[in-house]
Amino acid sequence: MTILCTTSTFGAKLPDELTIVMNPYGRRLTEAEVTALIQEHRPTGLIAGVEPLSRRVLESASGLRVVSRCGVGVDSIDLDAARELGITVCTTPEAPVPSVAELTVTLMLAALRRVPQTDAAIRAGGWPKPAGNLLGGKTVGIVGCGRIGSAVASLAAAFGCRALGYDPVIETHETCEMVRLDTLLVTSDIVTLHAPALEATRRMINASALSRMKREAILVNTARGALVDEAALIDALREERIAFAALDVFDDEPYAGPLREMPEKTILTSHIASGAREARARMEAEVVANLVAALAEHGGASSNATVRAG
């Protein structure tokens, strides 16, 4: 059987009976590129990243039985189309949790203490002494209190933070004080995003939301670029309606937009939240296990699609 790997990197070994074809571009693929690779190689299984697996792409994959997603989000996959076509979709929801949570807190600390800006100034010949702030004692607002949001809440609590949470499907939480989104935005010193990219969450951090945040607030996004209205964020930073943004994800990646011209008010990282070696190794092992199990269930025949975590 042929397995097409469309994620940009992958190092795990597949069983000998499976032949893997790697993404030849080494980056996130476009819809047209995914379609072309599928048509060329006719895979039975797909090891996927965040490339668009739209209805058009899936309908072009006549022999495809399994999509094993290297990660947790499925917003890039047309699940209705997969279900109709009998394609099983698997995810690895546990593996990236500690890596994403730790980078989230890293970005908070780096923003509060102005670490990248100080490093850049020293390299330019300066010796600045910025007056930063502590994370301890801050109110951290967590938008999306699933696995990753909950892990961030636990880390923030260890620093002595108050953790507020907003999640439309969670009423009570072990660590977070659950509140309305408006309350979270108005109250939080740091707002960190851990929600999926859905129609209901697209551009949820827009001009209106940003206007509710504190002027000294920091926005952190390690979830999905689609959650933030970038133009509104740029205006809010320029007009000092919020203080800082630390972003790991963007609508268009690799990112080449105007936030790069705002080094004093932003930290930008290249979608590396789940990229810790330990997390990546666990994720890839789970991807292979999910793929092999789902292919065995199919037995080479079509069936109704399922979305399976792990």
List the helices and strands and how they pair.
Elements: E1 2-5, E2 19-22, H1 31-41, E3 45-48, H2 55-59, E4 66-69, H3 79-85, E5 88-91, H4 97-113, H5 115-123, E6 139-143, H6 147-158, E7 162-166, E8 177-178, H7 181-187, E9 190-193, H8 207-212, E10 218-221, H9 230-238, E11 244-247, E12 266-268, H10 277-298, E13 307-309
Parallel strand pairs: 1-2, 1-3, 3-4, 4-5, 5-13, 6-7, 6-9, 7-8, 9-10, 10-11, 11-12
Question: What does this protein structure show overall?
Answer:
The chain has two domains: 2-95 and 277-309, 3-Layer(aba) Sandwich (Rossmann fold); 97-268, Rossmann fold (3-Layer(aba) Sandwich). 34% of the residues lie in helices and 16% in strands. It contains ten helices and 13 strands. Helix 6 links the parallel strand 6 and strand 7 (162-166). Helix 4 crosses helix 6. Mean pLDDT is 94; it is low at 301-305.
Short description, anyone?
The chain is an alpha/beta fold.
Any descriptors?
Rossmann fold, 2 domains, seven-stranded parallel β-sheet, six-stranded parallel β-sheet, 10 helices, globular
The CATH architecture of the largest domain would be: 3-Layer(aba) Sandwich
List low-confidence stretches. 301-305
**Count of structural domains:** 2
Largest sheet, spatial ordering of strands: 8-7-6-9-10-11-12
Q: Quickly count the helices.
A: 10
